[in-house]
What does this fold into?
Amino acid sequence: MERRTKEITNAKNKRIKIGVIPGHFATNHSHVNYYIDLNQMKRRLKNAKETAQELANIYSSMPIDTIVCLEGTQMIGAFLAEALSSGSTHSINYDADICVITPELDSNNQMIFRDDTQPMIWGKRVLLLISSASTGWTIERCMSCLKYYSGELIGVAALFSAISEVAGIKVNSIFTPDDVPGYASHSPADCPMCKEKQKVDALINAFGYSKI
It folds into this structure.
């Protein structure tokens, strides 16, 4: 599959890159016709730093206490916190001590925060940072978790998102389907590739893909 990979650069910042692979791929709750490889953004220092700066440009005027990182976005989250707090002295977050944390999954696969990290959520203004959003299911799940711990979700940032908002909260993303012509996401029951008996190439999640 790697031979089919095409590199795509961000329209605003050519130093931010992703890889896309056409095919038939299954997530936990949808089928898509492209695998969006975000590993360069999440794992490579320079790409991650550039990504964080682009997000900082979006959220520089929004007061943020905590960044909650999902799906391996912790390095970007740390750079984002640094960019927000060390920019211009006129920045609303200048010199702020922004927390960067990740929820834990318990034995029932529920998102939780331990007692010692709950003060970083309780009554705090929270920015959610996620790798990829196709249906909004993971975002809604995190919203419920933050509500339980009395956190105030003030924004959602994604590396790639096929949706523009979830439950009234805008989703700002570095890449969208407009960057991947022909990208489509379907529920498993409505997947046209399944109806045409096209074999699923791989199972995908935030960690990568596993060929079938």
About this structure: The chain has a mean pLDDT of 93. Helices lie at 39-43, 45-59, 74-85, 137-148, 192-195. The two ends are 12 Å apart (CA to CA).
